Amino acid sequence: MTVDLSLGEGTPNVDKDARLKRDEPETGITPGGSSGAFRDVLSPRHAHRGKPPIHFTDMDQEERAAAMAKLGYPSFRVKQLGQHYFAHYNREVSSYSDFPQQQAQVVENTFFPSLIRPLAEQEADQGTTVKTLWGLFDGSRIESVLMKYPTRTTLCISSQVGCGMGCPFCATGKLGLTRNMSAGEILEQVRYAARQARDGRLGQPSRLSNVVFMGMGEALGNYKAMMKAIRQISALPPDGFGISARNITVSTVGIVPGIRRLMTEGIPVRLAVSLHAPSDSLRDELVPMNKRFAISQVLDAAHDYYVATKRRVSIEYALMKGINDQAQHARLLAKRLNHYGDDWVHVNPIPLNPIEGSRWTASKPEDEKRFLDILHQAGIAATLRDTRGSDIDGACGQLAAKELIRQDQTESDPPQDIPNWTKD
Ligand code: SF4
């Protein structure tokens, strides 16, 4: 089944069939992957995927009120749950002093089933970076990374189990896609991290201020759950965590229909495009989705996103030694970006953190510097990205990927011992 993302919510005269088609449940296959020269890479586990239990954050207001009525409580109790969950990061109904306690456990099981549990944590950067490996209800593994900076605290979250994009330099890409995550599973990463930050897990108490969809998965391949999560990250309590939409970043390899749909949502999240190459011939190799949506289509959509939202687009570019980090690559990238005018993008080159045994390795520092200099000389804003956590497992999805590969080998679940990790 194909998920049609080509029409925005607000588009007039939306074709009924297309709307119906779009309302069908998503399979985890990206809309770009069902035709053209690209197919999502599926994990052998894809066939066995199940549905996670329904969570408070998966329900709309009517569904919450109906579930509450079924337990014999008036609808104002829903608001109380939302306040405890979003403002205090607390899902333990038995600890709510303002809530009837006779059925506390039933209420908790109904609205806040346990969706994710921390299996292990790794620290880096003197304790200001914490990476968490999560176990999901079906034994799946995902990860999130919490990072403290002088002026902000950022959480990088996963939106899919594995990833179907098949980028050959990426650990997650090697796994293939198992399934989409639910909004509840995505938001539980946020709640847990917000509580950790508040309680001083990163050294001093801080407030979670930024969320980036740059963990495992292609966020636009799980559009509905991603959007549901974004709305509840940005709404104020009792409807959401109250993190400004401007501090939320959605990262994509360039799913053009998804970018175009996102721009109709009226929510000013930042868009980050993982470009990694300035020419189609090279990008076809590094980012296989390019065979479906070529660079010019991706940059057209990214520039339209900038025009529609007034948010500068980030271009992510993993620098790989001798592959995409030479002067001619920087010059071509600058030319392609300047084609659309000034000041609409910010390029973030990031030294690749290679996976073991891979032929893709990190650039030399002098090549990184030259790459950056050429962009600057061409008038393009560019900053070498902070490689937070690179001394643990910096490449995207690598922590969970490592564990999944191990699990595939041993078929044991959950892990009993993970060397060098702090058990939670
Ligand atoms: S680099 Fe990103 S898009 Fe590509 S396979 Fe890895 S997680 Fe997926």
UniProtKB/TrEMBL annotation:
Residues 1-54, 404-424 are annotated as: Disordered. GO terms for cellular component: cytoplasm. Keywords: 4Fe-4S, Cytoplasm, Disulfide bond, Iron, Iron-sulfur, Metal-binding, Methyltransferase, rRNA processing, S-adenosyl-L-methionine, Transferase, tRNA processing. It comes from the Bacteria. GO terms for molecular function: 4 iron, 4 sulfur cluster binding; metal ion binding; rRNA (adenine(2503)-C2-)-methyltransferase activity; rRNA binding; tRNA (adenine(37)-C2)-methyltransferase activity; tRNA binding. The active site is at E143 (proton acceptor), C396 (s-methylcysteine intermediate). It is found in: Cytoplasm. The keyword Ribosomal protein does not apply. [4Fe-4S] cluster binds at C163, C167, C170. Pfam families: Radical_SAM. Its EC number is 2.1.1.192. Residues 149-391 form the Radical SAM core domain. Its main location: cytoplasm. S-adenosyl-L-methionine binds at G217, E218, S251, S274, L275, H276, N353. Reaction proceeds by a ping-pong mechanism involving intermediate methylation of a conserved cysteine residue. Belongs to the radical SAM superfamily. RlmN family. NCBIfam families: rRNA_mod_RlmN. This is Probable dual-specificity RNA methyltransferase RlmN. The gene is rlmN.
